[in-house]
Amino acid sequence: MTGVIKGTGASVPSYILENKDLESLVETSDAWIRERTGIERRHIAIEETTVSMAARAAQEALEEAKLSPEQIDMILVSTMSPEDIMPCTACQVQREIKASHAVCFDLSAACSGFVMAYVTACAYIEAGIFQNILVIGSECLSNVTDWSDRGTCILFGDGAGAVVVAAEEGTGYLPAIYSDGARGEALTLKSRPNHKPFGEESPGEEETPCYIQMDGQAIFKFAARSIPQAIEEVIRRNRLHKGDIAYYVLHQANERIVEAVAKRLGEPAYKFPMNMREYGNTSSASIPLLLHEMKEQGLLHSGDRLVLAGFGGGLTWGTAILTWK
Ligand code: UT7
């Protein structure tokens, strides 16, 4: 048995924040953001939440897969911007979509989270434990962004993407997934403003800001170096060649990172679709959002082999191969 994507869905907030709008918040310019990142705008949640977007994306994926919510065995949500620590986002999605038979939990691997969750879902299916799994990446990064930090606030956006992974006869692919906790301080999001250690009267006065903090150049270099290696490795592990890959679906952080990866691999630009121009960096939502868009645009054909590649906080990074249904 192996996991096959039977449906995709996406949900993004209706409010759009243009690069120009950021010029009144921080010292930046539309030209700088476009040139250094490729981003032109991002969607920002006003009414929407991490749960509501995840649930909407999940329902769309279920419709395409022709499955009812009760047929779902498991819901895995990757997020670093949950509304609550408990109940987890996956359980709240279960409540929203009424997937009463599913076991649900969240997975935290920052911008690599969707790849890690997809690989986890496939492992459950290949072990014969579950048949139908919803894998969701959903983020409200606007809630955890320091809107006075031009090094980060120009990058991020909100949104959700979902896929239904279902069991089919066949053999799966081996992933290539990695972590390096020793380099974790390069990209952080500290938690819980009301942290109250045992024995203290009230929350500590010296609060750590609960915003994304990043050494942009360090992350850029890490991604540009480790992602080509992880792609080469996943192709090698599965005894394939670059010519067997139709598209590389990379985490959408920066157009220059994607271009650097393509160059290092010696692969043509058309194999690296991008959509950060419209959504910015949506962390674990970026890969399923892009997959959904590629499908809607008719780019994906039955039998196409895709490489998914994520990288981000932890540090974490990883690649997985799939064959389009
Ligand atoms: O999701 C996974 C994690 N995130 C990423 O993958 C992000 C990876 N990193 C990046 O995408 C890039 O490093 C950034 C887009 C964050 C920054 O681009 P950069 O080309 O690495 O810029 P830089 O940090 O080297 O800064 C270049 C200059 C500096 O000015 P000086 O010192 O040369 O005078 C910065 O102060 O640009 C300045 N700068 C800005 N200027 C206008 C930095 N941010 C901005 C800004 N607007 N928003």
Short description:
By secondary structure, this protein is α/β, with parallel strands linked by helices.
What does this structure look like?
- Strand 4 (74-78), helix 4 and strand 5 form a beta-alpha-beta unit.
- The protein folds into two domains: 2-168, Peroxisomal Thiolase, Chain A, domain 1 (3-Layer(aba) Sandwich), CATH 3.40.47; 176-323, 3-Layer(aba) Sandwich (Peroxisomal Thiolase, Chain A, domain 1).
- The chain contains nine helices and 13 strands.
- It has a five-stranded mixed β-sheet with strand order 1-7-6-4-5, with helices on both faces. Strands 8-13-12-11 form a four-stranded mixed β-sheet, sandwiched between helices.
- It has helices at residues 19-22, 30-37, 50-65, 89-97, 113-126, 216-237, 255-265, 276-279, 286-296; strands at 2-11, 15-18, 41-44, 74-78, 103-107, 132-140, 158-168, 176-179, 187-189, 212-214, 247-250, 305-312, 316-323.
- By secondary structure, the chain is of the alpha/beta class.
- Oxa(dethia)-CoA binds at residues 28, 32, 36-37, 111, 150-151, 154, 187, 214, 216-217, 219-220, 223, 253-254, 257, 281, 312.
